[in-house]
Amino acid sequence: QIDLTGSSIFDYVHPADHNDLLDMLSLNETDRQAIQAQIGAANQRLSSAPTTGISSASPQVEHLELGRSFSMRMKCILPKRNAGLIKNGYKFIHCTGYLKIRLTNQKPAQEQLQLRLQHQKLTPDGHH
């Protein structure tokens, strides 16, 4: 393990894998379609809920998690243990985790649910 606090992950990822890493940490069109389907379902639940007389001024929040699993090459700066698993100073690392999406129904200027990427968590797993 190494502490990356204050460092960019891109300092450790092989340059040829930078775009792939960005893709994994971003929302693609398939993700957006899945999120829109979830938003539609949430809107349906809100519109069909019985009126309770309680003010709905407080925003409801929902979280969505989009799974990710990918491999990338990371710079190996550890001593030469298992040197056969390292090629040109890089080792293949398998990462799994999720993008956590937070949905709110706050309506400052729009009459729809707003989408914000709140948190990203990936767990690297040494793999050869």
Automatic annotation (TrEMBL):
MF annotations from Gene Ontology:
DNA-binding transcription factor activity, RNA polymerase II-specific; RNA polymerase II transcription regulatory region sequence-specific DNA binding
- What's an example Gene Ontology biological process for this entry? positive regulation of macromolecule biosynthetic process
Gene3D superfamilies from the UniProt entry:
PAS domain (3.30.450.20)
Entry keyword set: Nucleus, Transcription, Transcription regulation
Keyword check for Nucleotide-binding: no
For whether the record's keyword set contains Transcription regulation, the answer is yes
Identification of the protein by name: Single-minded 1
Supply the source organism for this entry: Aceria tosichella
